[in-house]
Design a protein that fits this description.
The complex is a heterodimer of chains A (457) and B (447). Chain A is mostly helical and 457 residues long. Chain A contains 18 helices and two strands. In chain A, strands 1-2 form a two-stranded antiparallel ribbon. Chain B folds into three domains: 173 residues, 3-Layer(bba) Sandwich (FAD/NAD(P)-binding domain), CATH 3.50.50; 116 residues, 3-Layer(bba) Sandwich (FAD/NAD(P)-binding domain), CATH 3.50.50; 127 residues, Enolase-like, domain 1 (2-Layer Sandwich), CATH 3.30.390.30. In chain B, a hairpin with a 2-residue loop joins strand 21 and strand 22. In chain B, helix 1 runs parallel beside helix 7. The two termini of chain B are 41 Å apart. Classes of the chains: A mainly alpha (457), B alpha/beta (447).
Chain lengths: 457, 447
């Protein structure tokens, strides 16, 4: 530990935190792995696409693990946020912008120019055949990278928060649901000549699961299984969402199950500080996310009306709504901006401003849930760590310093505010007794001002 | 009515906020440190890169205009209590109807030879942080003098930038005059585990400099020399009241105030670190330079000024800190050494990084204090237990109500109960499970 500060790789870092030789070596290996993938992507002829893929992913995984070990291993467990505000990548510096452009560019290629990815897709031919019995396509490539990112960065996150059992269990949960339910099961169903179905996504996030054409496709082509899948989706949307949210808050989904949440909580962790905490951002958030919800509800209703009328009245209107939604919300908002802009908007841009599922969960959380973040008496010192590390842009401190429990529609219950609080002030809790009064200004038993009678004024 | 507040720390800011909440008086807050009230306790996190300076501001920028709280970046040179006028360095005279002095503290500077050298400073003001920032460039070794809360913060700050630190602690154990022995020993181990050169029972003799007037080493009382380019003096703070020396306001170490926080001059109040209570509550000190008392005083004085005469009643003592990775919370009275008639139930986790101490009266068994290391307890519950004088055995039965650790954390209530049963030959059973509903039930119940 007692060593000289050494210059780091970051460009805009006035006070470098030492990046040791192990981390430099790990970064170099990581770069080589990426280069192999880039070479294949650009159409370079690789001796054996699958072996090259294994080599590249092996380098990337191994080096990511090595980097994390060099970063957190051998040091006492605890909050590891040193120099977060000095790092170029996590602080909208040069590396942040480069990363933002690269990831957004990846999404643009993925959605609109998949033919440019031919070489990359070819690398995934063998695993795609093995896992789902089909030729690889850009979506399989995307799903593989996505899952790998969740697993690798999840492992890094667990290492970082190894002292915090809530964080460890929660992260294992998102890694599990991503790997099994969002990657392996849909692939396996395809292998078995069944529909590619995602059990952990439902309307309105996976809006087509309640669209008439999807339902008739599932029930007609896959009969019994199809009916079950439609039933599953409807039960999740209309029963599981309100019931589970009543008991646990929206976190049961957003930071424990959801794949978007999985990426945000793992790969997105270094960017959580970038979310805008201002009142203005909160206003924009409420308008935007509820507009998207209204949009998808309308789109769904129109689709049903259209199907019922067999296109007699509405004509192409319903199609137009669906297409516009898919393009604007599905591709641009959730993909290019939502994930591509991690290093600019923070890791939960989509979840906070766009996701219609989060909007519904949020409404339940705010009005019909036992969940809240309680404030421990008068122990808050207004240091601002909670607000700074809130990925949803909630100004937690504003609540904590006045002894008000946090009840916010957007809170995904990641628990990081509670983890980074240096005074042990915040706790995620469920309580059935006072669902209606959870959000009141100052709790009846707020501490330490017993000489002051708040109620007389 | 014009309320003028000198100082915009937590005491002054909280006073302003509550005066606005309860009145339409004109409010002016003066500070020569910064226009934007911020959390002083968070200075370390700015240096360490956990937060940006603006993240530590108490309120968003629009708060002040919206709440019509005027702010002045200026320094008060003189206070004239007969004409109720302040003389400001830049803006000249300013009339007040009521004055609140909330100027906080300044770091103590005992008369050490060489303490005027460049590279020697404390950590209290924003400007101190800027000083540390500048001096950190190319810093090879830092020495921190003092074994208290600011000292360990400073050590942690330098460590975050991989700058080696030596810590000189006069006592034979870290914060040994406040923490009981085992807790203090735990922090000693933890400091060393983090690679700090911890020198217990070591006093500073002199600070030595080079020809340019920059510090290059310190000399300890036992004539050991440590080369360093920075010396942090963190041996406590004193009220920042020098500008009041000729004001006629009665001063001792701080501004002397009564239970309503009134000073000797009419319509002049003092709150926070700079206030010295003439008659502190029993068991409490006349000056308590902590965040929480400043905040409570701000709210108390606001009520009095807004027409509701209010006594300053800080209630049951509480405090908290974090020593590197180990959080610390205290509720009630937990002295370093128990006085006669007070017993302790002390449990420590085998990993040596967590402990729970419950103090109680040996005769009546009424609990008097809780000291937690690496474990979070619920403030309200501990406070109510102490206020009620609950017996240690009743507390142990319901100990889960106090647990404030995050979900899934290992629970240690049973271990504590078993320990008590073993030591006291009793058979207390843990009865309640952790539940927010139970907590609320208990807190709402009348004593």
């Amino acid at each position: 530990m007692n060593q000289q500060a050494s210059p780091s790789l970051s460009l805009s870092n006035p006070h470098p935190k030492g990046v040791n030789w192990q981390q430099k070596a790990a970064l170099a290996l990581f770069g080589i792995g990426l280069l192999i993938l880039l070479f294949a992507w650009l159409g370079g002829q690789v001796w054996n696409p699958f072996q090259a893929l294994l080599l590249a992913l092996g380098l990337i995984s191994g080096s990511a693990w090595w980097y994390a070990r060099a970063e957190y291993g051998g040091k006492p467990a605890g909050i590891k946020n040193n120099a977060v505000m000095f790092r170029s990548l996590s602080n909208r510096g040069l590396w942040g912008w480069i990363a933002g452009v690269m990831i957004s560019g990846f999404y643009i290629c993925l959605y609109w120019y998949p033919e440019t990815m031919k070489g990359l897709i070819e690398m995934f031919e063998a695993p795609s055949r093995a896992l789902r019995g089909q030729a690889a396509d850009q979506w399989f490539v995307y799903g593989s990278f996505y899952t790998l990112a969740v697993l690798l960065m999840g492992a890094k996150f667990i290492w970082k928060y190894r002292h915090n059992r809530y964080q460890v269990i929660r992260t294992v949960s998102v890694m599990f649901f991503q790997l099994i339910f969002s990657f392996l099961i849909p692939a396996f169903m395809q292998l078995m000549h069944q529909p590619e179905f995602y059990f952990t996504y439902f309307w309105p996030l996976k809006s087509e699961y309640l669209f008439p054409d999807k339902i008739s496709y599932l029930t007609q082509k896959y009969t019994h299984l199809g009916v079950f899948l439609v039933f599953w989706g409807a039960v999740m949307s209309f029963i599981a969402v309100p019931v589970l949210t009543y008991f646990f808050g929206k976190r049961w989904y957003c930071s424990w199950v959801c794949g978007c949440g999985a990426l945000a909580e793992t790969a997105g962790d270094p960017f959580r500080t970038l979310s805008d905490k201002s009142l203005r951002a909160w206003r924009i958030e409420r308008w935007l996310i509820h507009s998207v919800l209204v949009f998808i509800v309308l789109t769904t209703l129109l689709a049903w009306l259209n199907s019922w009328q067999q296109g007699a009245i509405l004509g192409d209107l319903s199609q137009g709504f669906s297409k516009t939604y898919g393009f604007l919300i599905g591709s641009i908002f959730s993909g290019v901006i939502g994930t591509g802009f991690y290093p600019i908007l923070g890791s939960r841009g989509w979840c906070r401003f766009g996701c219609p599922q989060a909007a519904i969960l949020g409404i339940f959380q705010k009005y019909f849930s036992r969940f809240r973040i309680t404030v421990n008496g008068g122990q808050c010192i207004s240091c601002g760590n909670c607000s700074t590390y809130c990925e949803m842009g909630i100004d937690v401190k504003a609540y904590a310093q006045r002894g008000q429990d946090v009840v916010r529609a957007s809170c995904v219950g990641c628990g990081i505010c509670s983890a980074v609080c240096p005074r042990g002030v915040l706790r995620l809790e469920n309580g059935a007794d006072d669902v209606r009064e959870r959000a009141q200004d100052a709790r009846a038993f707020h501490i330490g001002e017993d000489g002051v009678k708040l109620n007389d004024h | 009515m014009h309320i003028v507040i000198i100082g915009n720390g937590i005491a002054g800011t909280n006073a302003a906020r509550f005066i606005r909440k309860w009145s339409d008086y004109r409010i002016t807050m003066i500070s020569d440190e910064t226009l934007h009230p911020f959390s002083r306790t968070a200075l370390m996190y700015c240096y360490m890169g956990h937060v940006r300076q603006r993240d530590t501001q108490l309120y968003e920028a629009h708060f002040w205009a919206k709440n019509r709280i005027e702010r002045l970046l200026d320094r008060v040179e003189q206070v004239d209590t007969t004409s109720k006028t302040l003389l400001l360095r830049q803006s000249g005279a300013l009339h007040y109807d009521k004055l609140i002095i909330a100027t906080g503290s300044t770091p103590n500077r005992p008369d050490w030879p060489g303490q005027e050298l460049k590279g020697v400073q404390g950590l209290y003001h924003l400007q101190d942080l800027e000083g540390m920032e500048q001096l950190s460039q190319g810093l090879q070794h830092a020495v921190v003098v003092g074994g208290g809360l600011i000292g360990i913060e400073m050590a942690e700050m330098f460590l975050s930038r991989n700058i080696p630190v030596s810590m000189l602690v006069r006592e034979h154990s870290y914060w040994g005059n406040v923490l009981p022995g085992p807790e203090s020993a735990m922090i000693n181990r933890h400091i060393i585990e983090h690679g700090i050169d911890l020198r217990l029972g070591t006093q500073l003799k002199a600070i030595e400099g080079d020809k340019q007037g920059r510090v290059h080493s310190v000399l300890t009382q036992n004539d050991k020399r440590i080369a360093c380019q920075f010396v942090g003096l963190t041996t406590g703070v004193s009220p920042n009241i020098n500008f009041l020396r000729r004001s006629g306001i009665e001063l001792n170490k701080g501004v002397l105030v009564d239970e309503q926080l009134r000073s000797s001059a009419p319509d002049v109040f003092a709150i926070g670190d700079c206030a010295e209570l003439r008659r502190p509550a029993s068991g409490r000190r006349p000056i308590e330079a902590v965040w929480y008392t400043g905040r409570m005083m701000g709210q108390t004085v606001a009520a009095t000024i807004c027409g509701q005469e209010t006594m300053y009643k800080p209630g049951i003592w509480f405090n908290s800190a974090k020593f590197f990775d180990i959080e610390y919370q205290v509720y009630g009275s937990v002295p370093a050494i128990n006085p006669a008639g007070i017993s302790s139930l002390y449990w420590e986790h085998p990993d040596g990084k967590k402990s729970i101490r419950i103090n109680y009266e040996s005769e009546s068994l009424a609990v008097t204090g809780f000291n937690l290391m690496g474990i979070r307890y619920r403030h309200e519950v501990c406070e109510k237990w102490i206020l009620e004088g609950r017996s240690i055995e009743a507390v142990l039965q319901q100990l889960s109500l106090a647990n404030f650790d995050p979900e899934f954390y290992p629970k240690h209530e049973q271990e504590l109960v078993s320990l008590y049963n073993r030591l006291e030959q009793r058979n207390v059973q843990l009865q309640t499970r952790r539940s927010l509903t139970m907590v609320q039930c208990y807190l709402k119940s009348k004593v």
